[in-house]
Amino acid sequence: MLEMVDLGKKLEKEEYKKLMPDLERRLTELQQKMRELGIATTLVFEGLEAAGKGTLINRLMLPLDPRGFKVHPVHPPTIEEAMYPFLIRFWKKLPEKGRLGIFDKSWYERVLAERVTGKVSKKECQQAFNEILAFERQQIDNGVVMIKFWCHISKKEQGKRFKDIQKNPSLSWKIGKEELKQHKAYDDYIEAAEEMLEKTNSSQSPWVIIEAHDRRYATTKVFEALADAWETAIKKQQATVKKAAAKATKLTPRNVTVVSALDLAQTLDEKTYREELESYQKRIRNLEHEIYIHRIPAVIVYEGVDAAGKGGNIKRLTENLDPRGYEVIPIAAPTKEELARHYLWRFAREMPKAGHITIFDRSWYGRILVERVEGFCSETEWRRAYREINEFEAHLADFGAVVVKFWLHIDQDEQLKRFKERETTPWKAWKITEEDWRNREKWPKYESAINDMLANCSTSYAPWTIIEANDKYFARIKALKTVVKALEKALKKS
Length: 494
What we know:
This protein has 494 residues and is of the alpha/beta class. It has helices at residues 13-37, 53-61, 88-91, 113-116, 122-141, 155-167, 177-184, 186-200, 215-239, 270-293, 310-318, 336-339, 345-348, 370-374, 379-399, 412-424, 434-441, 443-456, 472-493, and strands spanning 41-47, 69-73, 100-104, 145-152, 207-211, 298-304, 326-330, 357-361, 402-409, 464-468. Helix 5 runs antiparallel to helix 15 and helix 11 packs across helix 19 (472-493). It is elongated. The two termini are 40 Å apart.
């Protein structure tokens, strides 16, 4: 692909002066319209050193409202960032609706610089391609406009620019050992770039090759590409018939489901419970330190029907742990800031770093449970979420994270009993709300959604464990056993 690029393309100064005022005006007006429509944009600038990425970004910023964009210069991951799956730091930087995120280098460094320098293996590189494609598709499916620019220059041109920069006392610091190494390995970088362009080019997130020898030509091509993409997005949005708020999906209850067939009569006597609780809590305390030594992160998800005992279960899991090594994240309804981004954004920000444990009291599964049943998202969105969630969890598992997911289930009689107990117990009254009673009335609808979730999102790398929770003692010990088993399995592999 790159050998066919015509790097001799030029734009004369007079022609440039004629084109730019109109392009600048278009971008200024289109940015405002994109903000009004709430459409986010992600721009990726990739290319070899001295290809002019910074200059192009700087020129692009001039006609834009600075309140509506943010530039993210991407450097090699810090020690802290390297303790997370590589896409997590980019999840955190995604633009909210109506804003523009500009990346000077990006997640593609995983398959470029890190590949050429040998920091990632061929297997990891191929895995990264799949993870990147999933990551980008998820953003685009959520309405984001994404354009990726590859700024291309020849080895000869790069060498010439390096010399010019080195002659300038104010800029010479930009050319160090790493830049000179890249120039020497130019052919290796181009080979990596060729594969990257081939494997990650799509109609939804295309690569735009910028012939970057002539800065005027490169500038107008970037401006035109962005203006065209924004105009297309605006027309598409305006052409879409405005639909009413998503209606709650009609769910047909099944006669026999996974959760309806559970044996909820399983119990554990108090003496056995106390003995096993002490034993497993000691073991988990030791495992917490062992996974820290081996830098294994753990993600533990608690979901379940209201009053199933998630809080008590989490308490028994954590009460003997070192508080410096874990965090419990209670999940409530999304805030305005969170609603302005992909629904997984708020969860990506809370992932544990290597060697730590994060426990979620409710999670991203709200997308295919409460949001589905209550009509807070469309059917297209919640059906798409099964794949998105599996891909998100695969990214965690590929990094080496242990992913444990619990569904705590009780029957309706037990739930009613616990609801009434909460209403009549002063220190428990805060736990029961009108929403809990409303959810109870929709039990059959939730049961259908639960069974679809269990069927579609239980994988070898992130399986669901169903906890029969009518008996709290039984439920707590089963959860502790499951965590111990999962952590021990991960340590054997390390």
